[in-house]
Design a protein that fits this description.
13 strands; binds pyridoxal-5'-phosphate; 39% helix; Aspartate Aminotransferase, domain 1
């Protein structure tokens, strides 16, 4: 039989499949547990927006019909909220899909893509698929080091991915640092601001990336309904950029990237300010509770601008992860990011957070 390796795109030979957070059902089945909480994928523990759910129920009967390909109504509403034209927005099957579009539309063989070492893995995946050269800098204080990134920019650089806030560390790059980077790099370099956790940011020095789009810079902003709106399971995210860039992204998107339920759910969630505030409040309170408990236990964590916390256990996190699973708590061990002693913990409901703290205390004592 012919070795399929010889048939495969060279760029993907070294790629490893993405390992998502372990699903609740799998842990229940494997460990015979009835109650399991998942604090591993930065979902919204509060649940989906009730207005989204209502809209989805009403839409179910139209499931025989294809959706509107460009999510027109959703784009109109987003455009109104952001005070920009609809042609500045592209809606995809999650922000993941839009990350792929950035690569498919803009990365040629040999193009250099610059980002940071410990960040969202989708940037590397699409870069390698497209034959780009993936160049990374070290994090500085768990944060993207924009000076180091600027130094790596060369005449071959096509794109910079800035995960802001960064997943998995939860830190942000601030306005001044971004301003300096934008001043330094040539205008033809595309800067992708992945703002999946935008809504959770409390720091007032968070940059206004939209201003770069409005100035006409080659900037693409990514946002999602998976986090604050609580509809990760429906898969809807979007990109914001000047219309010419959106035009090229639109050339490579599939004909019906988002389904009918995702479109109406996302649209309705934009009116659900009550749910939005509830999620933020729950996250703020959960964060303070977890900080207090971690402080009491003298455990190091990185202060977060997101709905997750990066925690250094100072000991092997893989065995901690397994012990957590046995206690019905799914978290994310840090080995995959090169931080074998760290974990990433999604901030859950008070009940879920307490269940984690209980497990933590049992395991470390
Ligand atoms: C930084 C970052 N970007 C993008 C995504 C993908 O979001 P979506 O669920 O919209 O595909 C995630 C999901 O966790 C993320 O953490």
């Amino acid at each position: 039989m012919i070795d399929a390796k010889n048939l495969t795109r060279r760029g993907i030979l070294d790629l490893k499949p993405y390992i998502p957070g372990k699903p609740i059902e799998e842990v229940q089945r494997e460990l015979g547990l009835t109650e399991v909480v998942k604090l591993a994928s930065n979902e919204t523990s509060v649940g989906p927006s009730p207005l989204a759910l209502e809209a989805i129920r009403k839409e179910l009967g139209n499931s025989n019909l294809y959706p509107e390909g460009s999510s027109r109504l959703l784009r109109e509403k987003l455009a109104e909220k952001l005070s920009i034209g609809e042609d500045f927005i592209i809606v995809g099957n999650g922000a993941d899909n839009v990350i792929d579009l950035t690569g498919m539309a803009f990365i040629n063989d040999g193009d250099e893509i610059v980002t940071s070492e410990i960040t969202f893995p989708a940037y590397e995946t699409i870069t390698r698929i497209m034959g780009g050269k993936y160049i990374t800098c070290k994090l500085k204080d768990f944060t993207f080091d924009l000076e180091a990134i600027a130094e790596k920019v060369s005449s071959k650089t096509k794109m910079i991915y800035l995960c802001n806030p960064n997943n998995p560390t939860g830190t942000i790059v601030k306005r001044d640092a971004v301003e300096k980077l934008m001043d330094k790099i040539p205008e033809n370099v595309i800067v992708v601001f992945d703002e999946a956790y935008y809504d959770y940011v409390e720091d007032e020095e968070y940059p206004n990336s939209l201003s770069y789009v409005l100035e006409g810079r080659n900037v693409i902003i990514l946002r999602t309904f998976s986090k604050i709106a609580g509809i990760a399971g429906l898969r809807v995210g979007y990109g914001i950029a000047r219309p010419e860039l959106i035009g090229y992204l639109s050339r490579v998107i599939s004909p019906f990237p988002t389904n009918r339920l995702a479109q109406v759910g996302a649209l309705a969630s934009l009116d659900d300010s009550e749910h939005y505030e509830k999620v933020l409040k729950s996250n703020r309170e959960g964060k303070q509770y977890l900080y207090r408990e971690l402080n009491k236990l003298n455990i190091f964590y990185v202060p977060t601008e997101t709905n997750f916390i990066f925690i250094d256990l100072k000991e092997d996190s893989q065995s901690f992860y397994e012990k957590c699973l046995q206690r019905g708590v799914i978290i994310r061990p840090g080995k995959t990011w090169g931080y074998p002693n760290c974990i990433r913990l999604t901030i859950g409901t008070q009940y879920e957070n307490e269940k984690f703290v209980h497990a933590l205390k049992e395991i470390i004592t």
